[in-house]
Amino acid sequence: MSGRRDSARGHRRSAAARPDLVVRTPLALRSAVRLGRRLAFARLGRAALIVALIGVPTAGFAAAAVVVQSTQATTTERLDYSLGHAAAQMRVVGPDLSGMRQDPVDWQVTDTRRNSPAFRSSDADQPWASVLDHVPAGAVSIPVGSTNVVVDGPKGPVALPGTEGSTWDDALDGHWRVLSGRAPTTPAELMVTPATLQRLDARVGDTVDVTDPMTKRFTITGTMRDLGSVPDVQGVFLPWGTTLGNAADATAVEPYDLTVYLATDAPTWSEIHALNAHGIVVESRPVVLDPPDDRVGGQGSGMNWYLAGLTLIGVFALFEVALLAGAAFLVGTRADSRSYAILASVGGDRRFVRTVVAGSGLVLGVTAAVLGVAAGVGIGRVAFGVLDNGDVTSYPGFHVPALLLLAIAGAGVLAGLVSSLVAARAATRIDVLSALRGSRRPVTPSRKTRVRRRIWGPVLVVVGGVMTLACGVGVLMLNDRPVQHDDLAWIVGAGVALGPCLVQLGVVLCAPEVLGAVSRATERLGLAPRLAARDARRNPIRTVPVLASVMSVVFVASVVMTWTASSHAAFVRDYEYRTAVGVATADVSVTNGGYDAAVTRHAADVLGHVLDHDRIRVLGVAQEQTTEKPGTQTLPHVWEQRDCPTNDTTGCSRFLQSTDSTAPHIWAGTADDLAVLTGHRTSAAVSAALASGKAVSLWPEYVRDGMVRIDSFENRKWDDPLPTGDTRPDASVSIPAVLDVQSPRIMVGVFMTRETARQQGVPTVDGMLVTRLPGQLTTSQWDDLNSAWQGRGGADRDLWGGPAFGYEAGPVDGSAPVMAVALALAAAVTIGATGVAVGLARADGRRDDEVLDAVGAAPRLRRRISTWQAAILSAVGAVIGTALGLLPIRALTLRFTDSAVGVTHTPFAPDWTMLVLLALGLPVVVTLGTWLTSGRRRRPTVRRAP
Question: Do 575 and 653 meet the contact criterion of CB atoms below 8 Å apart?
């Protein structure tokens, strides 16, 4: 022992003899963390604030993770729905040729081997196998197919989707489920969904009459539903053989519309390969649960995008939390400066003091993370119960992603630790003697620090702005190239995103000077704003983080709003109206191509009983669509041939350069029909022109010297190129015409009466249905239209599939929800940040309150000071953030010349109303809220020793 003491003394003497040698004492980590824990909860209000700042975002992320994970089915859950209790299912997906192979897990993902028979042949040229012919010998099979039936309802025929097969079998429970009653036992029995039972106004045990595709009376034996659909879906469940043939003959059903379930026999992977050679894919439970190493193609997942988005939002949230919680830690450090001075006075070095403060952040971060994750799981469970719509494919079950929640909790702990690091550094820079006397005066930055900040702030602002605009020019140049696939787009895109961040960092460095300018500007506004501005300037440790937080979140909201508004402006610019707003049209194209006047009139008569608010008009159109069989194509001649790099709604409209059965170029009808299409009464000149046998052109490109020319092209097929101005027509006719250009233009090229078309030899036939509607068709109206056609269409149903009215609503702005979410997010963070600022100012300014009280200031003065401080911080942050949000969008929408061919340029079109609301309205709301919540505070009690 004596030797050890001598050695220690010798070591100390050696160290003393060498003043340049720094001896670091061992760090008492356990003691420092324990002391940090005590200091963390010594002031419960501050601890609760920091825990809330970290815990609330943590709870939100945990709840979102739970809800999203609960929408992802596990392999077992997916099989439970796909197969029920069955062992496998089989389906035909291609012709009976070898060369196709499937994925063992995603069984409907297939690949075709190059140069194989399946690769060289088209589906239309080869027969398809019957899956029933390839059922393993001795296996119990359950064929299931889909059909459509029409039943007599209380108000007329009702068209319903049907499922044919023994879906009520116990082997399929999990995919379909019997809810009430019993399963059918005879061919004259069926089951329905509860919603169908309600629509038919029937009960279990009643009979229903099926009128199509056969005429037969069925007895309802019970209710059931597909678990992969919402509970209110409609449908019927029929015994196998009702419409699709019988179990031994599947000729009445399309091969691809038939699925065969194997109750107990599951094919092996080698047997599945043999079935793939016949165009049959198989989902086998044992193979899916233990798949071979023979996957097909890349198996990407949408969860990767979800995790990337969650990480991006999480980093931004961590930044916001670090700013606000860091301000709270700094204020707390100043309040506890005497405690840290005592630690330093009894021998605690800087490392120990820093560890104590960091330990406080670690303890508060762990507490917030645990509470936040626990609350998030509970919130996620409640949200899952609310969102669950009964569809097991959308919400298969409640899942808790343990690893993801652990990562979220780790982020919460990291937020607490990172938030305390700046405060830990500040705790080592206090004046020990002044702190022991009770002084809490903030540490004044050194002159070198102030100079460096004043230099780097403007430099970063300029560099960031120039980088953003320069990279915007780079984006413009890359977009104008014919080949876009390279890595340069990522580089310039990153520059556009990084530039505004540098600008914001520069603004934060200049924030004390900005607040100083605000302070000077408020000198003549009164006592309360003057004191609030001076307090904000003199205490940057709690005001600058709040200012940065408000600025950053408003910047994001400004970017989202501006980009959304610009995208909608581009959509409006390129939008082409089919007709006037409020008009619905439907083309009655028959299955063999072209139109049939009798079918069109029949459709108008049937559908007119459903849409009885306005009569359905039948208009004639010229045949434009081509098929596999040669036919005649009739189009108006375009006199002005333009080289259009991009489309617009006038001379370079898509309407002039393409054909579409829903928007024909040549129409025939009456003047009243034209008034419906244009949305206003025709002028006297137009009405007179139609009555005198002239045509009306709604596009000037079709008129030359008062004439329109109608060209006909013979023997045209679907793969022939669209005729151009240089294509020689087989026949032409010129018709006198008047011009009636609409604003905005509509997809009606040339209009004439049927008599004019007949006299001029223009081949038109009744093929369009036109009517006025008060709004978009509802689901109920669509259902009624489909039921009416299926019930009364007769043989014409085989020629026309049914009504498909297109309603012209104009360029509807769907950006309102996006802007509302962005504004709500900015408001929430701004209100929270300013609330933190006001709270910290109250806690940190107790001495100021004592002084105000001593000089006789009224309590309402302190209320005004809090209100003005909230107004200053929120207004400065919101205005700067809104202005900076315009920068990246302006860079991405730069355009100095006409767009290149095939390039669609997005205009710079901010929604100034929303931006003003964001920049000025949001601070007004925050200020008003602060005024209402600050209230009257009791006078501070000052205790002095006698």
Answer: no
